[in-house]
Amino acid sequence: MSRKPLFLICALLAACAAASCGETASPEQPSDGSVASAETPETEAVSDAANYDIPEPEIPEFDFGGAAFRFLDGYNSAMEESPERFLVSEGLTGEIVNDTVFNRNLKVEEKFHVDISMTSNHTDFINLILSGEPFDLVMMDGPPLASTALQGLYLNLTEIPYLNLTAEYWGTNALNGLILDDLLYFMPNEICLDPLSMAGFLYFNKRILNENDLENPYELVYSNQWTIDKYLSMVSAVPRDLNGDGIMDHSDLYGDVHRYEFRTAAFLQLFFGCGQTYTKLDEERGRVMAFDPVLCQELIDKIKGVLDDKTVCIGNFTNYNVEDIMEYRSLFMEGHTLFIQAEISAMESFRNMEDDFGLVPNPKYDSSQEEYYHRVHPHSAMFAVATTAEDLEKTGAVTEWMAWLSHCMVVPAYYEITIKQKRTRDVDAEAMLDLIRKTLVFEFGDEYDIWIPNYLWNTYADGTWARMTASEKLLNKQIDRIVKKIRAVE
């Protein structure tokens, strides 16, 4: 397969950056001081692009004569809470997101004269494709998509007609993190809002904040002073043995509660928040490791000294089932910790908290860092085009227009109504969510089996970058092996 010159790929990535122009490193402070209402009716209409006004994609008028447009949902929902998929709706129920999905699909079906359907199967999806089942879009969490992409099950998205992969509704920040040469076999888009709901950031307890006379995290974000040092100092300021028994346990007060180990470790969220990634593009090798050893050791020293102190933080929550996730969240919900590292999807659990809560982005490395960054959970759902897709003009046209329409209809219903108006408690939190939504990060090394996340975690656990240095040769070989496999996909 021929390779496009690197400058063409750079131009594509530059277009991504241009598409997000106007995003600032720190949001403007809300001026009216009002509190977001939690009483918006479920039936409030969100039916057009009034608040999400971006140009409609230029797609020819097509009539596909009632042809099927088929989703294959291969997401393993047993791994986590159910993802925010929103692919199909069986009918109107009065719940705003469900009804918006129903109306979106109806508009798509009417525009292109297609019949949208979905098959869910996460145990045998490979055989379904290999048997020739004509699916248009496959939706799955990233690592299984990546591993099956290496088996040649999907088509290169850069060659599918009508797809504008630099458009906002394709998750423009994802392109730089997932592309290799001109090869891109899966991407998030806003037909599924799973990536938006699974980006990690920080919630804080306002009562604990006030009782300890700590600075307002909102003000720190607005003044561009929300840094890793500031966050760690606040975490260290609040822990107390509340019952005086000399033992720190779940009845006491901590600075932070977090997942401790491996791919979802708190350290990795903060690592990305400080502007770091595992890999970067390279003209010859495709992808190479992107670590700055000196800075990485500094981050390990800073973070480990606080987060690993069991009198300051409580961690070691590593499982993915719902019961363990709720135990992890309950410490924050019951007022036993100032901060918790969680996702937008966690907000539903926090709605009935007695204490008031706020939320802020991951802290920057320092105030000179231009932007905040938020790593999307590695198992967030993405899309691929199956090699069995029968009509690529249909697949490309319907996918592109449906992604754009989702941005105009489903995102406002979910994000503006369900999340902002029903689950947040102040307008500052809404401003923080806007910032987080525009700074999502996807990482090649998270999705493909390059081992880097676990090696980086082990390095953090050891406390010395020497362990990663000793593994560089092995990891570089693994990167090269994955790159070679991707380039060999036919």
Structure characterization notes:
This protein is an alpha/beta fold and 490 residues long. Helix 10 crosses helix 11. It folds into 2 domains: 187 residues, D-Maltodextrin-Binding Protein, domain 2 (3-Layer(aba) Sandwich); 216 residues, Periplasmic binding protein-like II (D-Maltodextrin-Binding Protein, domain 2), CATH 3.40.190. It is 40% helix and 12% strand. Helix 2 links the parallel strand 1 and strand 2. The N and C termini lie close together (8 Å). The N terminus is likely disordered. The strands form 4 sheets. It has a 5-stranded mixed sheet. It contains 19 helices and 13 strands.
Structure described in brief:
This protein is an alpha/beta fold and 490 residues long. It has 19 helices and 13 strands. Helices cover 40% and strands 12% of the residues.
* Structural class assignment: alpha/beta
Give the end-to-end Cα distance, rounded to a whole number of Å.
8 Å
CATH C-level class of the largest domain is Alpha Beta
Rounded to an integer, what's the Rg over CA atoms?
23 Å
In helices, the fraction of residues equals 40-55%
Estimate what percentage of residues fall within beta strands: 5-15%
Domain count: the total is: 2
What's the CATH topology name of the largest domain? D-Maltodextrin-Binding Protein, domain 2
CATH superfamily membership of the largest domain: Periplasmic binding protein-like II
How many strand units?
13
Note the overall shape. Answer: globular
Count of separate DSSP helical elements: 19
Low-confidence runs (pLDDT<50, min 5 residues)?
Answer: 1-25, 31-50, 78-83
**Strand order of the main beta sheet, please?**
8-5-9-4-10
What oligomerization state is this entry in? single chain
Largest sheet report: 5 strands, mixed
Return the average pLDDT rounded to an integer. Answer: 86
Query: How does CATH name the architecture of the largest domain?
Result: 3-Layer(aba) Sandwich
